[in-house]
Design a protein that fits this description.
alpha/beta, Rossmann fold, Dihydrodipicolinate Reductase, domain 2, 7-stranded mixed sheet, 6-stranded parallel sheet, 36% helix, binds (2R,3S,4s,5R,6S)-2,3,4,5,6-pentahydroxycyclohexanone, NAD, GFO_IDH_MocA-like_dom, inositol 2-dehydrogenase (NAD+) activity, oxidoreductase, MI/DCI_dehydrogenase
């Protein structure tokens, strides 16, 4: 069997996924590349011999040339596309965020529930990172006793000039919201944000910021988010247990020692830092889809993290601890492996 995948959105993530599907993923091929900018779609499709070039989701769904979709347009375009894709009954791997706000995310969740089967996986690729998986196993096995705290550091080399305080939460910290939910298997109940000194290298964004969340059972997790850190792309986690500590994300295969210094390389960006995670995410999605299943992060995970983002932006603005409001979780998602119960 071979899954025919259409990639919608031929920007940075879309073109990376086309390359991955065409050259690094088994049991699939790219049947179409879709972008309003058909020239850009054409250039990307040329890397996946034989892929059709189309300019809209409507055209794609009418063509019948795809069994499944990878949606990699900007987040504000996701809702409209997802509702059409659900209506057509096609499985979709949707890049994060599911949608930019909890109201639209909930509409997508409701449409999926109404369709009666899970079609959406959200692209929280860190769940497929080897370090993340190992830490999750350590937590679940209780071999170090109970998990007490999580400390995250999320650093980017630099942010685009138009990056805003809101985007710090929506684009960047959304990954930690999902990570905390993944590690603990619990929902986040509140979010606060403190902002102190700001680097002279930031544009209008206040940077770094310190975010604290709490889960249903009371666990605290904090995040240093620093999007103009200059040093490269770093995603570290330190987990504090009753009987030990675990650090992930700091290692590297390649350690260099030279005159007067010793250390390892730092990735330039997320495409390389999480390459293995993206590869595994997409291969597992292809294989599950061929078996008529979705077994990665769900639309519910997309909705719950969107609710955390809304609380995070309010916390940034108000300087308060903001409660995260969630709609009741449809039982539809309870059997799902990736999500908190
Ligand atoms: C970007 O959208 C990502 O998803 C990256 O993983 C994150 O590190 C970056 O801050 C975001 O802008």
């Amino acid at each position: 069997d071979e899954l025919r995948v259409a990639v919608v959105g031929a920007g940075r993530m879309g073109s990376d996924h086309v390359d991955r599907l065409a050259h690094h993923t088994l049991r699939t091929r790219v049947s179409a590349v879709v972008d309003v900018d058909v020239e850009r779609a054409g250039t990307v499709a040329a890397n996946a011999g034989g892929a059709e070039v189309l300019s809209s989701v409507d055209e794609l769904l009418a063509s019948g040339i795809a069994d499944a979709v990878v949606l990699a347009t900007p987040g504000f375009l996701h809702e409209e596309a997802l509702l059409k894709i659900i209506d057509a009954g096609l499985p979709v791997l949707c890049e994060k965020p599911l949608t930019p706000d909890p109201e639209s995310a909930l509409r997508v969740v409701e449409a999926e529930v109404a369709a009666g089967r899970q079609l959406i996986q959200v692209g929280f690729m860190r769940r497929f990172d080897a370090g993340y998986r190992r830490l999750k196993e350590t937590i679940d096995s209780a071999e170090l006793g109970e998990l007490l705290m999580l400390h995250h550091q999320h650093r980017n080399p630099e942010a685009p000039a138009e990056f805003t305080d809101e985007m710090v939460i929506h684009d960047s910290v959304v990954h930690e919201f999902d990570a905390v939910r993944y590690f603990t298997g619990e929902e986040i109940t509140n979010v606060s944000v403190r902002i102190g000194r700001t680097t002279s290298r930031a544009g209008t964004v206040r940077d770094p910021q310190h975010v604290t969340v709490q889960t249903q059972s009371g666990l605290l997790a904090d995040v240093e988010i620093f999007v103009n850190a200059q040093i490269g792309y770093q995603v570290h986690t330190q987990a504090t247990f009753e009987n030990g500590l675990v650090k992930i994300g700091e290692g590297s295969e390649f350690e260099l020692t030279t005159a007067g210094r010793s250390g390892h390389e730092i990735d330039a960006g997320f495409v390389t830092r999480f390459r293995d995670a993206y590869d595994l995410e997409v291969q597992q999605w292809v294989d599950a889809t061929l078996h008529g299943r979705i077994d990665g992060p769900s639309a519910w995970d997309g909705y719950a993290t969107a609710a955390c983002c809304a609380a995070g932006v309010a916390a940034q603005r108000n300087g308060t601890i903001e409660h995260v409001e969630l709609a009741p979780k449809p039982s539809f998602y309870s059997s799902h492996t990736g999500s908190p119960a």
